[in-house]
Structure formats: structure tokens, C-alpha cells
């Protein structure tokens, strides 16, 4: 049951995320990444010549509107998935969170192993900054919840 829910969650989220990718240069968009030959960035990738929206000759405003719609859909799917995950027993929820965290750590270690020493230092800084931002966000959410309780 748990593996089915996880597979369902990933299967529903991945196409939405792929279509909502930002345009322009950077690690996930633009000509630099297409030249790297990464998956989804080739001639027939989501935003390449064979992508679903590339044949429509969309304006910048239309692309932004579609990106917003796809983002809204992603959030709705995430909320729906969370609704059903909340129905799982606490032990299964904890096991799933632990499994996701272990997978994330393994992926980060695998990525780090591919990098050169100077890139590893920069990568470690990026990961540290992301962790700090997540901690700040959690702190803000706790403060926000506390303010909402005081208002009631």
C-alpha cells in the first residue's frame, strides 16, 4: 500500500514539474543544459521541438499562464496526496519520511561523488544554504501558526 502511494505520488507529480520548468539559462533550462544532453532537454524533450506546447507558438503571457495553471495543478495533487498520506498510521508515515530522507541523502552523496573537489565545496555550501532556508521557513511557519492562535 505504501509503495503504491509513493509510486502514485511520483507518477502524478513528475509530468507537471517537467512542464512547469523555467525558461532561460540555468541548471534546468536554457541552451546550456540542452547542450549537456540531459534527459528531457533534447530535441524531443518537454520544451524541445517535440514538446507539447512548443508547436502552439505561445506568447510569453500564455506560457506564464500555463506555467501558473500547471503549478496550481501540482499543488492540488500535492494536497490530495497529503490528505491520503495523513490517513496512514503514524508508524507508516514515519517510515515513509525516513525512506524519503534516506533516498535524498543517497542521491546527494552520489551527486557529490561525481563532482570535482572545488565543485564539492560549492555544492556543500549550496546544500547548507538550502538547509538553513528550510529551517527559517519552518520557524516562520511556527511563528505564523502561533500568531493565528493568538488571534483566535
From TrEMBL:
Molecular function (GO) terms listed?
unfolded protein binding
Keywords, A to Z, come to:
Signal
Instruction: Spell out the coiled coil positions from the record.
Output: none
| Annotated signal peptide | 1-20
GO cellular component: a single term: outer membrane-bounded periplasmic space
Positions of the UniProt region annotated as Disordered: 24-56
User: Would the keyword Transmembrane turn up in this protein's UniProt record?
Assistant: no
InterPro entries the record matches? Cpx_auxiliary_protein
Under PANTHER family, the record lists: PERIPLASMIC CHAPERONE SPY (PTHR38102:SF1)
This protein's name: LTXXQ domain protein
From what organism does this protein derive? Pseudomonas lactis
Amino acid at each position: 500500500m505504501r509503495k503504491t502511494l509513493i509510486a502514485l505520488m511520483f507518477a502524478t507529480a513528475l509530468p507537471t514539474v517537467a512542464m512547469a520548468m523555467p525558461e532561460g539559462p540555468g541548471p534546468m533550462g536554457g541552451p546550456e543544459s540542452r547542450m549537456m544532453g540531459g534527459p528531457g532537454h533534447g530535441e524531443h524533450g518537454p520544451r524541445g521541438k517535440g514538446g507539447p506546447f512548443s508547436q502552439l507558438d505561445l506568447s510569453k503571457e500564455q506560457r506564464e499562464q500555463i506555467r501558473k495553471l500547471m503549478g496550481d495543478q501540482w499543488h492540488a495533487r500535492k494536497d490530495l496526496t497529503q490528505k491520503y498520506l495523513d490517513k496512514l498510521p503514524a508508524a507508516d508515515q514515519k517510515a515513509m519520511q525516513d525512506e524519503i530522507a534516506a533516498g535524498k541523502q543517497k542521491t546527494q552523496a552520489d551527486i557529490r561523488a561525481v563532482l570535482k573537489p572545488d565543485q564539492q565545496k560549492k555544492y556543500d555550501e549550496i546544500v547548507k544554504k538550502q538547509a538553513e532556508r528550510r529551517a527559517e521557513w519552518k520557524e516562520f511557519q511556527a511563528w505564523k501558526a502561533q500568531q493565528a492562535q493568538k488571534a483566535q
